[in-house]
Amino acid sequence: RSSVGTFIHLTYSFTMDKMNPAHLLVLAAVCISLLGASSIAPQPLTIHQFRKMIECTNTRPWWNFADYGCYCNYGGNSTAVDQLDRCCQTHYNCYSQAKDNPACKPIWDS
């Protein structure tokens, strides 16, 4: 759920006749934290970190996924075959956009 959806859900979860100062304080704290979190820049990720993520979350060796599906390889195409391939597709699209942006560092940095 997005931060806006969470905020709307929290807003409608309380009605004005049931809301006391403690509820307002909690709601204000949540809103402030959501605003602060949205201003944090994402950390750059490398292919090495992507490999580490696969190693951490899976029992099979990472190289088993080096040519998996349509996107878990060098160069994606077609439709992702499953959730893992969709994860690789998201990763592939992110890197494709980064390569096209002159402000971004090369993929192989760090």
UniProtKB/TrEMBL annotation:
Database matches in Pfam families: Phospholip_A2_1 (PF00068)
Localization annotation: Secreted
Disulfide bonds: 72-88
Superkingdom assignment: Eukaryota
Keywords, comma-separated and alphabetical: Calcium, Disulfide bond, Metal-binding, Secreted
Family according to the record: Belongs to the phospholipase A2 family.
Cofactor details (free text): Binds 1 Ca(2+) ion per subunit.
Major subcellular site: secreted
GO molecular function, a single term: calcium-dependent phospholipase A2 activity
Cofactor or coenzyme needed: Ca(2+)
Domain Phospholipase A2-like central: 46-110
InterPro entries cross-referenced by the UniProt entry: PLA2, PLA2-like_dom, PLipase_A2_dom_sf
Protein name: Phospholipase A2-like central domain-containing protein
One annotated Gene Ontology cellular component of this protein: extracellular region
GO biological process: arachidonate secretion; lipid catabolic process; phospholipid metabolic process
Binding-site positions, Ca(2+): 71, 75
